């Protein structure tokens, strides 16, 4: 995210991570880069209408994705082979690999390699599902994944006798798996593994009874993983602790940056993640550590207070002793929040430097801060005291939250697995429309799975299911991740089969040795699962080669098949996105309009809390804030994906989108500053705020419609209400509210400037840009 100008907010991100070093596979990267260059060049020549030039070099506004298909492939290759900064979790990987070993060993000893392969499939896939980011208990995820794999195995075998029955089942199952992304990424990924299970295991059983046995063995793998999680818990509630600690650390980082930049940006994503993690089922609420129950709300309240203290418009003066005092308080607040974050993450008592506690003492006689700045300082000290009170014990004592009553919920409720069914149905129903990225992904998934199966079945190669499995496992609802995972899977497969082939040749045929190597490969795959798809896939490919070797398959046959069919599956996934894409670029205007409307409702809710400070209005303000954050996150996700798409100019230019984004961030920041000084319930009313709230909500709602339909917004009601406010006593009674209203008006004017263009500007700009695109394409063709 670029640096923000004064008056902006919600931009940066605080990260708490450790860097892991993994060597990139050189030959695999080179092969992937060559593949990307060849295919990208072909598409750039064959699909010029999807290409566009870098218009900024020609002196015209740059569009959102001034990249060609070839340049997009370069970014895809870099992204697919990038080592992600993460914290390795070897103990979790060891426990999950032990689950694979527990089912593979006895199955190989007591039954046959075929049963051992089924057991390995269930245990490996169920174990991999537990590494997905989810706030539900890991044992529930393992059981659910094992059950889904077993069901797909058995149903697939029942229909596997003839293509006329199996292909429709495969298409329907793949479509449903694609629609599972409506629930979330974890559901979508786990559902995709069930499609792979259906494709693999129909080649193993020979009768309905054997199919039931294989399905039971697969389900047993999920049960074993769940039992291991229950018997050997590692960092119970660790992910929830990390989410809450990251939220506190993000606010601490924000406070430090405010010392030097009073309008520093803040990304609310850590707070949104912490809120998602705080939603628990009634059974989880009974066992949740008390320390996870309170600090999130305090972090939410501290953020606007530190912003108001640092802001020169409504807080400490820009220079002088007041500014120095504000810097001291912000630095001490950061120390306290960091100490609380460490306490929650590690489960130890918080340790705050003595100098920080001394700074947080507000002396009524000698305090240099005055007015709203002093109020913010006193409020900050009060909130930090509550943070230390909760984190001081390290979560080892205190009252455990009890299940809520109907009147006042004490925790955010997450539905149980059974009560999740109607939630899933509603989510899927919302996505059943042609313009939905999830629906289009489901259609692509169904088409590619069936087409890949048919093509591979006609090739003179064994294990044809590898092609559709490769397609299913790399496909995602968006362009960039689909292509990056396809490149990563090819690179990882090349490296993995080369590694496994060398070991197979050196060791010779031995089922028990290959079974042990498969378990080791699974453990390494789990260890690297969060460092990048290519590196985890390297050991996944080795794991598959060892499993096939355990079953008696010769490496001379399996290795070429694996490489060729993986290449075929990845190519099918890439082509499918070109044929039936779900580009994010056309959705930008709608996302911007949604964010504008949500911000308007949030700002109006804050003003109504001034007009009539009641508990109901505070609750409305909180709901509006959450809706605004959700709309902002949707815009940011769409904007980031649109910048990576090699499509022609559609709607907003890059400059317009960026300026509009900054304007809306400034608008939200002004509302946040006002929120920090919302009067208490026993305070006097400010009736002038109600009129401005109504005008603001009405104008932003209409402007959202105008932005969506590419019309210029108008702020007539806001200007009239603000003009009527001038000269009244309301501004004197609440200077923060009045100054915030002025900042909001300025932000709305900046938004109108960003998105408004005359018809002549639109026509001339579009014609010039198309001319630049054609000229650049012609120059690139001559260069080749």
What features would you describe in this structure?
It is built from 30 helices and no strands. It has 784 residues and is an all-alpha fold. The protein has three domains: 90-234 and 433-579, no CATH class; 241-281 and 290-393, no CATH class; 586-782, Methane Monooxygenase Hydroxylase, Chain G, domain 1 (Up-down Bundle). The protein is globular, with a radius of gyration of 29 Å. It is found in: Cell membrane.
Quick recap:
It is found in: Cell membrane. Belongs to the YccS/YhfK family. The chain is mostly helical and 784 residues long.
Strand content: under 5%
Average of the residue pLDDT scores = 81
Shape: globular
Biggest beta-sheet profile: none
Radius of gyration based on Cα positions = 29 Å
| Number of strand segments | 0
Report helical residue fraction: 55-70%
User: N- to C-terminal separation?
Assistant: 35 Å
Please specify the SSE layout and strand pairing:
Layout: H1 26-46, H2 69-80, H3 90-110, H4 113-129, H5 138-158, H6 163-179, H7 185-201, H8 208-231, H9 238-260, H10 269-278, H11 282-287, H12 295-310, H13 321-346, H14 354-359, H15 371-391, H16 420-431, H17 437-458, H18 466-474, H19 479-507, H20 511-527, H21 533-550, H22 555-579, H23 588-611, H24 615-642, H25 654-675, H26 688-708, H27 716-725, H28 730-733, H29 735-755, H30 759-783
Helix pairs in contact: 1-2, 1-19, 2-19, 3-4, 3-8, 3-20, 4-5, 4-7, 4-8, 5-7, 5-8, 6-7, 6-17, 7-18, 9-10, 9-12, 9-13, 12-15, 12-25, 13-15, 17-18, 17-22, 18-22, 19-21, 19-22, 20-21, 23-24, 23-25, 23-26, 25-29, 26-27
């Amino acid at each position: 995210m670029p640096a923000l100008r004064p008056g902006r907010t919600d931009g940066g991100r605080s990260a708490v991570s450790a860097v892991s070093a993994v060597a990139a596979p050189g030959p695999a990267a080179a092969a992937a880069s060559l593949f990307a260059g060849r295919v990208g060049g072909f598409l750039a020549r064959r699909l010029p209408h999807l290409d566009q030039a870098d218009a900024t070099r020609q002196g015209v506004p740059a569009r959102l994705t001034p990249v060609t298909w070839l340049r997009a492939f370069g970014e895809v290759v870099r992204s697919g082979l990038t080592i992600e900064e993460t914290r390795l979790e070897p103990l979790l990987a060891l426990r999950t690999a032990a689950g694979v070993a527990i089912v593979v060993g006895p199955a190989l000893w007591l039954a046959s390699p075929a049963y051992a392969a089924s057991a390995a499939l269930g245990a490996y896939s169920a174990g991999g599902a537990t590494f997905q980011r989810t706030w539900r208990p890991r044992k529930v995820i393992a059981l659910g994944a094992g059950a889904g794999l077993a069901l797909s195995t058995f149903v697939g075998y029942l229909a596997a006798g003839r293509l006329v029955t199996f292909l429709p089942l495969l298409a329907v199952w793949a479509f449903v798996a694609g629609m599972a992304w409506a629930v979330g990424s974890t559901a979508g990924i786990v559902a995709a593994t069930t499609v792979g299970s259906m494709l693999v295991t129909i080649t193993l059983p020979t009768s309905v009874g054997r199919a039931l046995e294989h399905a039971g063995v697969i389900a047993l793998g999920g049960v074993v993983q769940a039992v291991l999680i229950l018997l050997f818990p590692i960092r119970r509630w660790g992910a929830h602790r990390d989410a809450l600690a990251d939220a506190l650390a993000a606010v601490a980082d924000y406070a430090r940056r405010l010392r030097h930049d009073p309008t520093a940006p803040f990304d609310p994503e850590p707070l949104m993640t912490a809120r998602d993690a705080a939603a628990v089922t009634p059974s989880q609420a009974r066992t949740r550590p008390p320390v996870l129950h309170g600090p999130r709300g305090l972090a939410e309240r501290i953020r606007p207070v530190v912003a108001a203290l640092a802001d020169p418009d409504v807080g400490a003066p820009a220079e002088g002793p007041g500014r120095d005092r504000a810097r001291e308080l912000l630095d001490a607040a950061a120390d306290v929040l960091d100490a609380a974050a460490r306490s929650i993450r590690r489960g130890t008592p918080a340790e705050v430097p003595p100098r920080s506690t001394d700074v947080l003492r507000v002396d009524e006689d000698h305090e240099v801060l005055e007015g709203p700045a002093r109020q913010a300082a006193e409020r900050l000290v009060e909130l930090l005291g509550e943070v230390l009170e909760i984190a001081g014990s390290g979560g080892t004592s205190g009252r455990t939250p009890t299940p809520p009553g109907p009147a006042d919920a004490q925790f955010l409720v997450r539905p149980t697995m059974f009560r999740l069914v109607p939630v899933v149905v509603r989510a899927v129903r919302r996505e059943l429309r042609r313009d939905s990225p999830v629906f289009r992904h489901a259609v692509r998934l169904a088409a590619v799975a069936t087409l890949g199966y048919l093509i591979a079945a006609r090739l003179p190669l064994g294990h044809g299911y590898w092609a559709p499995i490769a397609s299913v496992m790399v496909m995602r609802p968006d362009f960039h991740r689909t292509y990056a995972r396809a490149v990563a899977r090819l690179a990882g497969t090349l490296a993995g089969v080369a590694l496994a082939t060398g070991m197979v040749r050196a060791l010779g045929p031995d089922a028990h040795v290959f079974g042990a190597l498969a378990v080791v490969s699974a453990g390494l795959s789990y260890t690297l699962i969060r460092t990048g798809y290519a590196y985890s896939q390297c050991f996944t490919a080795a794991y598959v080669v060892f499993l096939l070797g355990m079953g008696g398959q010769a490496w001379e046959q399996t290795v070429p098949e694996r490489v060729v069919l993986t290449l075929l599956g990845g190519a099918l996934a890439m082509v499918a996105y070109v044929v039936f894409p779900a580009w994010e670029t056309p959705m930008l205007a709608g996302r911007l309009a949604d964010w504008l409307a949500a911000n308007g409702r949030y700002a109006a809710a804050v003003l109504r809390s001034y007009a009539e400070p009641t508990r109901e209005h505070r609750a409305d303000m909180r709901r509006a804030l959450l809706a605004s954050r959700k709309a902002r996150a949707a815009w940011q996700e769409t904007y980031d994906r649109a910048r990576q798409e090699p499509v022609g100019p559609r709607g907003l230019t890059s400059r317009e989108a960026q300026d509009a984004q900054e304007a809306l961030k400034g608008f939200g920041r002004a509302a946040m500053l006002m929120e920090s000084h919302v009067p208490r319930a026993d305070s006097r009313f400010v009736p002038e705020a109600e009129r401005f709230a109504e005008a603001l909500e009405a104008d932003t709602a209409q402007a959202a419609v105008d932005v969506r339909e590419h019309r210029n917004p108008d702020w007539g009601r806001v200007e009239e209400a603000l003009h009527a406010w001038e000269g009244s006593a309301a501004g004197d009674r609440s200077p923060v509210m009045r100054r915030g209203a002025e900042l909001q008006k300025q932000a709305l004017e900046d938004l109108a400037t960003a998105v408004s263009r005359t018809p002549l500007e639109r026509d001339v700009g579009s014609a010039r840009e198309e001319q630049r695109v054609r000229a650049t394409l012609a120059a690139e063709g001559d260069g080749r």
